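Collaborator request, handled under Task 6.
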Amino acid sequence: MPIREISRRTGLSRNTIRKYLQADIVEPNFRTPTRPSKLDPFTEKLSGWLLTEQRKSRKERRTAKQMHADLVQLGFDGSYERVAAFVRAPALQAHWRPPTPQQSSLVAPAHKSPCLPEIHPVR
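Structure tokens returned to the collaborator:
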């Protein structure tokens, strides 16, 4: 699997992933602290909007930009990118399926890490 894809899925930089792959290090020695997001107070509202929009036809749905504008009217002072990432996240998760036994054998055991999730190709 390409380093860029591992980076996209794990949220770590490509250089960090490359460093761990070259050093055969199993576990990174740092943890990223969890931080509250400006979007946290609005996640339930946004999730509800996404559920109602999901039932509409494609042309009747609001865009992420329109949802961001509505959140700003409700007092949200965060960026559009935060809202767009939240809107995209369920779409990415909907395409994920558990790996088949054949796909499981594609993961190199030398690079398994509890911090880095195993990545399997989706067919």
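The cover message to the collaborator said: "The radius of gyration is 18 Å. The CA atoms of residues 66 and 80 lie 10 Å apart. Please let us know whether this matches your experimental observations."
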